[in-house]
Amino acid sequence: MFTRAVSRLSRKRPPSEIQDNDSHASTSQHGPTGTARWSLSLEHLLEDPEGVRRFREFLKIEFSEENVLFWLACEDFKKTHDFKKMQDKAKHIYAYYLSSKSSTQVNVEGQSMLSESMLELPHPLMFEKLQEQIFNLMKFDSYNRFLKSDIFLKCKKMEEAPSEEMVPKRASRIYNT
User: What is d(CA 124, CA 111) in angstroms, rounded to the nearest whole number?
Assistant: First the structure.
């Protein structure tokens, strides 16, 4: 599923340090790449670091970047094996995305069912249902608007435009003698 591919994006980094300019961009030798691949599904978009970067840029404009950041933090959290690190990451996710006191709170049902005491005994799938809600929110709302956005369309246009190296240069009519 898409979670395995995206797990490369945030391997061994705390959620606050997840970057979307990872050098391991998806370079599948088969099928579409870039914007063509992004337009196939949100899963494909989230597998590509450049796609994540552009989607985040779009979500910032829409004042909902916290959704993808929460989703990425949960992906990172699920791969954490060290118990102490898992506790720290669970507390971070709760404080930044689920607490009613947070300025970056995501809008999900069931966040009130999580208590701070639960954060002391975290498990890798404790945020899974909330993460799934955010994924679906992005998939059926933000993602479709992203595909129509200037950000996406400019990326697509740049990919489709021939590069300067491929355009033959016109010979000059003026000769230096």
Answer: 16
Q: Which residues of 47-76 are buried (b: 16+ CB within 10 A; e: fewer)?
A: bbbbbbebbbbbbeeeebbbbbbbbbbbbb
Can you read off the two tokens belonging to residue 9?
């994006």
Burial class (CB in 10 A: 0-12, 13-18, 19+), 6: buried
For 84-141, what is each residue's pLDDT tens digit? 999 999 999 999 999 888 899 998 887 666 777 888 899 999 999 999 999 999 999 9
Nearest of 117, 68, 61 to residue 94 by alpha carbon: 117
- In this structure, is the dihedral angle defined by the CA atoms of residues 26, 32, 36 and 39, taken in order, positive or negative? negative
